[in-house]
Amino acid sequence: MAVPLSHITDYLDQYLRIREVPDEDQALNGLQVENGGSVTRIGAAVDACQATIDAAAERGIDLLLVHHGLFWGGLQPITGRHARRIRRLLDADIAVYAAHIPLDCHPDVGNNVVLGRQLGLEDTTWFGDYRGVAIGVAGILDTSLRELVNRIRTTLNVEPHTIASGPERVSRVGIITGGAGNMIRSARDAGLDTFITGEGAHYTHFDAEEWGLNVVYAGHYATETVGVKALASHLEERFGLRWEFLDHPTGL
């Protein structure tokens, strides 16, 4: 079964609000590379790197959905590794579609919503301002910090780094996946006692410690695997296209 690429990208642009949600310029959300015009198999990956591009080519994938696209380095000549990535995509006739903040904040398949659902958050609300858009998900979770960390460990298959500066019995938990350690203040202002993200800078230890929050760093990569999987699964339901996840963990 083949579906026109334009049918999928037009749907994604609307479903993810690609033109409405603010982001960094180099995110270049939407279709980044087009193929010959049809899609038979979808690959989902966190990053459009050489490893995931090669894996897509080897598996006969013709649409690669990613969270981090090809242009995070900004404007650059098509030489060296950038040229190798582009050449492989064109030779294998693979389209690339990227969704960064539009995927983070999506109410159904977004990284934060999906991870919150997997961890059992209830009565969820939004928090954490990014360029005028609330991107974090907060909710109720009555459990111990130890049990929450164990859920994260099991769900994401990682060993989280925990700053246990809040209560041992958690109740108000928030999530902003990826590199949102600089948003601990937003978690505090939202009345949370526990904040889950991917990674943060050294100084964020003292933010957590001195503001009395539990902070769990579960890995930038690991926390952002859930959205692209959910999006690919959604496309399978809508268009009848098989998909697979191309795992290339960084350990960060």
Task: Describe the fold and architecture.
By secondary structure, the protein is of the alpha/beta class. The protein is built from ten helices and 13 strands. The chain has helices spanning 5-15, 50-58, 80-91, 101-104, 111-119, 145-156, 184-189, 204-211, 220-223, 225-239; strands at 3-4, 30-33, 38-39, 41-47, 63-68, 95-98, 122-130, 133-144, 161-164, 169-175, 194-197, 214-217, 242-245. The strands form three sheets. A six-stranded mixed beta sheet has the order 7-8-10-11-12-9, sandwiched between helices. The radius of gyration is 19 Å and the shape is elongated. The N and C termini lie far apart (37 Å). The mean pLDDT is 97.
Radius of gyration: 19 Å
Low-confidence stretches: none
Class from secondary-structure proportions: alpha/beta
* Distinct helical segment count: 10
How helical, in percent, are the residues?
25-40%
Strand content: 25-35%
Shape: elongated
| Oligomeric grouping of the chains | single chain
Terminal residue distance: 37 Å
What's the mean pLDDT score? 97
Could you give a short account of the major beta sheet?
A: 6 strands, mixed
Instruction: Kindly state the number of beta strands.
Output: 13
Q: Could you state the order of secondary-structure elements as H and E?
A: EHEEEHEHEHHEEHEEHEHEHHE
In the sheet with the most strands, the strands line up as 7-8-10-11-12-9
Per-chain topology:
Elements: E1 3-4, H1 5-15, E2 30-33, E3 38-39, E4 41-47, H2 50-58, E5 63-68, H3 80-91, E6 95-98, H4 101-104, H5 111-119, E7 122-130, E8 133-144, H6 145-156, E9 161-164, E10 169-175, H7 184-189, E11 194-197, H8 204-211, E12 214-217, H9 220-223, H10 225-239, E13 242-245
Parallel strand pairs: 4-5, 4-13, 5-6, 10-11, 11-12
Antiparallel strand pairs: 1-3, 2-6, 7-8, 8-10, 9-12
